Task: inverse folding
């Protein structure tokens, strides 16, 4: 594996995905040094292929407003959550002490969905959140938490590199050996423990810590045919001993009568002789079977003698502690067994077991001494052996990675996206390194890539293609992007080669040819693939990667995009241009919006198409902001998984079982809101203002600061003030595609000439001086966006803000908007503002509010447009509103020509439109005259 890299390597690094020069926290990258405020290092900030580059999170300071308010809530979570809970699953996997921490649960625990097969992913997200929080705020607490987590993960990897070591704990009489749940460790006794004895006693002190059925105290046998076992719990929750030479159907057994109390020591013993078996719990006989003809002598020599492990692969490993395990070559009497309850065997009439006797009082090492006199030293082992490479790091065994290589279909209860989880951990470690300069984090990240390369580079190409094409199990998230980012730091050729091993050729080739193959694909499994392809283009120059990513973006936006910027229904894509037909309770998975934002900005680095930033504004100001609940909670991030778009849907901010992928990306989103407010041309000749947000940019390269003062989107514009040194550059101000009511710019109070086209950038080029003030005015209009497959299903927007109806009805709201439309074509006069609540309106008794507000109100993101009669300027003509075959109504045709310079122009247009509809037989002559008279008689807002 790669050797640890010095902090000097960062001088050649790019902070690609975070879009920034790396920052330092510990001098020389030494762990344990006092954290310092982030400071940018010298060096290139972006790949040579990028024509614009982002600024670092530390370069852009958020001012007061909705973004700062949402971030504050998430920062409280970042400060308050116990990181040892996240580390629990990693420490358990390595057999280390979990320090009494309880795993988060949900997707981060063994009892969660699919047996916790995704555990570890959330820790990576949390590391990224902490890294972004530290870079944004400079608060020491975030760097300290990163240090704790990186230190623990370093210890975990070191432990995994070696054979397991005993974890000593307090026992009934002294020290005992603990088997942490999730460690997959067991004790392997030598062959010949039982010999050919016709009679036997087995006795052990155990302290189970979990109520797993069929967890074995012991299992001696060959396979699932010949064995004897003692389980702490059977399917009925009570202890069971069984012996068989013909599998489960032939078991001769003993069942207890009560469950062993978890977290407490219990003494179990089994005697077997002369056809009678007896099971004892805490010295009391609880079961007797006088028809037990099987004995160790009848079974004969057995291959395995395990404590804590079953021969049935699906059975759990025993979780808890062992103290004393003894085997005698005779059946102890009831009195002898009873005496074992009060002291170690050596102090009882029975004495130590003559076949085997283990005290489990070792404090270190990986073996247990046998005090029987037979020298049968036992060894602590992992069920899965150990990592195939010293760089391996995970919260579960390597088995998921191994099994994926032979899978032909998805089964997430066995294999759930192991390379996806590896991506989250890798990304979190790389972000931690770039934020703090901790070389341990870089070494861990580099080691993970070394391990993955060693594993994947030897597989046939056909195997890789099959793996990456498997739904869920083969999902690998944004791992290609993260590997490319790491390659930019390490320069290791194997790392770049590793990134290319994830190519899913049939998908890349189809998208490069602009062939839409998305119908039926899992959305979030595939979106991050394309951000990785853009990064591969950056590193290799291979055009098909960039072409595929651009074409893919165009297949999603707008063809599979909901009005809020989200995509997917039930996590999948349906046919192109089907929007209304996919709306349900499980639409718009939050991760999809997160990943589409990342792809959009990465594409913009190559091609400054304003459509990318128009989408960015849409998704950020609506779905992403609205996915975060406006409630403080140190224990939960309070982020949606799905955002149902059905009528009356109430958002769920504690989804599924918790610690989901969307909560992870939600933590990241809420700590990097400022990442795309400003970009700079690669040569420093231009500054792009992509988003209007209260913030301050420090453009160190040019010695300039830019401060935005705005309450956007409550304010329809922004004021930018230049500070610092004089500098000549072009200021490129985004003109949103929806800004059809004008876009005006002044510099120091003087209007800037030029035409601002919606969906473009308006450029002001000059030598800027301290104190120069740029005022941008972007008048909002109320407008609707129609579902591509049903024009009558519409979403309501005011400027960039999606307004949703708050109404408990589960039926679509029917709304008309033309009745008070102004001469400008603005529909806003039809709505009534709510006093004291900016951007809140009422319409027909329903309050409409910004989607971005993270409430639990039942909402209507879509409504049914209903304009049954021709109403103009608030005056009802009494004429039914006719429609063409394509759904276009007379009112649609009238208002499509807005804005009108005055009422006369409107009346003229109404007359000509009515005439055409009368001539086409869509409207009667008398009806037409009534419509024209209504237009003349009505009063219209400007």
Result:
């Amino acid at each position: 594996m790669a050797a640890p890299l010095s902090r000097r390597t960062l001088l050649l690094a790019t902070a690609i995905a975070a879009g920034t020069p790396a920052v330092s926290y510990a001098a020389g990258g030494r762990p344990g040094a006092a954290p310092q405020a982030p400071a940018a290092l010298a060096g290139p900030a972006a790949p040579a292929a990028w024509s614009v580059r982002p600024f670092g999170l530390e370069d852009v300071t958020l001012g007061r407003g909705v973004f700062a308010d949402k971030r504050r809530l998430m920062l409280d979570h970042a400060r308050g959550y116990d990181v040892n809970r996240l580390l629990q699953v990693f420490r358990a996997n390595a057999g280390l002490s979990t320090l009494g921490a309880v795993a988060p649960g949900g997707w981060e625990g063994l009892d969660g969905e699919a047996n916790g097969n995704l555990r570890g992913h959330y820790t990576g997200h949390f590391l990224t959140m902490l890294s972004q929080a530290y870079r944004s705020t400079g608060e020491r607490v975030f760097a300290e938490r990163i240090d704790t987590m990186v230190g623990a993960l370093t210890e975990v990897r070191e432990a995994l590199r070696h054979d397991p070591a005993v974890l000593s704990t307090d026992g009934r009489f002294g020290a005992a050996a603990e088997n942490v749940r999730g460690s997959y460790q067991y004790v392997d006794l030598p062959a010949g423990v039982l010999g050919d004895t016709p009679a036997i006693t087995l006795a052990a002190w155990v302290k189970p810590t979990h109520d797993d059925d069929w967890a074995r105290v012991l299992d001696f046998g060959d396979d699932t045919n010949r064995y004897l076992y003692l389980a702490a719990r059977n399917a009925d929750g009570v202890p069971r001993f069984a012996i068989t030479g013909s599998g489960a159907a032939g078991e001769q057994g003993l069942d207890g009568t009560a469950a062993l109390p978890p977290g407490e020591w219990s003494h179990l013993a089994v005697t077997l002789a002369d056809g009678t078996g007896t099971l004892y719990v805490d010295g009391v006989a609880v079961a007797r079977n006088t028809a037990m003809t099987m004995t160790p002598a009848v079974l004969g020599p057995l291959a395995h003698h395990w404590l804590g492990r079953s021969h049935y692969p699906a059975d759990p490993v025993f979780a808890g502690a062992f103290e004393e395990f003894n085997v005698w070559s005779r059946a102890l009497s009831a009195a002898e067994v009873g005496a074992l309850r009060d002291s170690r065997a050596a102090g009882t009439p029975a004495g130590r077991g003559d076949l085997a006797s283990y005290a489990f009082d070792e404090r270190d090492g990986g073996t247990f001494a046998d005090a029987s006199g037979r020298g049968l030293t036992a060894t602590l082992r992992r069920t899965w052996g150990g990592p195939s490479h010293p760089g391996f790091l995970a919260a579960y065994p390597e088995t998921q990675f191994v099994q994926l290589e032979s899978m032909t279909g998805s089964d997430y209860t066995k294999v759930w996206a192991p390379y996806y989880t590896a991506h989250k951990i890798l990304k979190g470690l790389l972000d931690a390194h770039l934020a703090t300069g901790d070389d341990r984090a870089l070494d861990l990240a580099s080691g993970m890539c070394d391990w993955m390369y060693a594993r994947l580079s030897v597989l046939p190409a056909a195997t890789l293609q099959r793996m990456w094409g498997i739904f869920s199990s083969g999902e690998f998230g944004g791992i290609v992007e993260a590997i490319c980012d790491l390659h930019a730091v390490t320069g290791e050729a194997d790392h770049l080669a590793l990134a290319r091993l994830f190519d899913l050729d049939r998908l890349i080739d189809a998208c490069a040819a602009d062939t839409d193959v998305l119908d039926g694909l899992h959305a979030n499994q595939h979106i991050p693939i394309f951000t990785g392809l853009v990064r591969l283009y950056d590193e290799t120059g291979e055009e098909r990667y960039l072409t595929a990513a651009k074409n893919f973006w165009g297949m999603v936006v707008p063809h599979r995009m909901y009005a809020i910027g989200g995509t997917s229904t039930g996590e999948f894509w349906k046919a192109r241009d089907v929007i209304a037909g996919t709306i349900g309770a499980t639409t718009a998975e939050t991760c999809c919006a997160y990943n589409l934002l990342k792809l959009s900005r990465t594409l913009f680095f190559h091609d400054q198409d304003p459509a990318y930033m128009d989408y960015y504004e849409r998704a950020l100001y609506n779905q992403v902001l609205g996915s975060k609940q406006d409630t403080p909670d140190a224990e939960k991030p309070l982020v949606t998984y799905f955002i149902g778009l059905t009528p009356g849907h109430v958002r769920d901010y504690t989804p599924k079982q918790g610690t989901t992928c969307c909560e992870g990306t939600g933590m990241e989103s809420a700590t990097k809101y400022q990442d795309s407010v400003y970009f700079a041309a690669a040569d420093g000749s231009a500054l792009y203002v992509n988003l209007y947000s209260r913030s301050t940019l420090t453009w160190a390269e040019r010695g300039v600061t830019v401060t935005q003062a705005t309450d956007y989107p409550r304010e329809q514009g922004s004021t930018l003030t230049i500070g610092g040194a004089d500098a000549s550059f072009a200021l490129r101000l985004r003109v949103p595609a929806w800004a059809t009511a004008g876009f005006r710019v002044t510099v120091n109070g003087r209007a800037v000439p030029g035409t601002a086209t919606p969906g473009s950038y308006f450029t002001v080029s000059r030598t800027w001086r301290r104190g120069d003030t740029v005022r941008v005015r972007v008048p909002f209009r109320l407008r609707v966006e129609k579902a591509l497959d049903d024009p009558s299903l519409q979403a309501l927007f005011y400027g960039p803000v999606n307004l949703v109806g708050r109404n408990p009805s589960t039926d679509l709201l029917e709304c008309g908007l033309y009745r008070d439309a102004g001469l400008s074509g603005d529909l806003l006069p039809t709505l009534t503002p709510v006093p004291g609540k900016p951007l809140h309106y009422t319409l027909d008794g329903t309050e409409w509010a910004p989607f971005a507000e993270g409430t639990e109100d039942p909402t209507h993101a879509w409504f049914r447009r209903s304009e049954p009669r021709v109403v103009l300027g608030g005056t009802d003509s009494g004429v039914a509103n006719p429609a063409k075959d394509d759904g276009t109504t007379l009112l649609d045709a009238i208002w499509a020509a807005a804005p009108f310079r005055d009422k006369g122009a409107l009346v003229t247009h109404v007359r000509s439109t009515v005439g055409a509809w009368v001539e086409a037989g869509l409207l009667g002559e008398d009806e037409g005259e009534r419509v024209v008279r209504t237009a003349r008689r009505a009063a219209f807002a400007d």
Notes: The longest strand covers residues 200-208. Confidence is low (pLDDT under 50) at residues 1-36, 40-44. The radius of gyration is 34 Å.
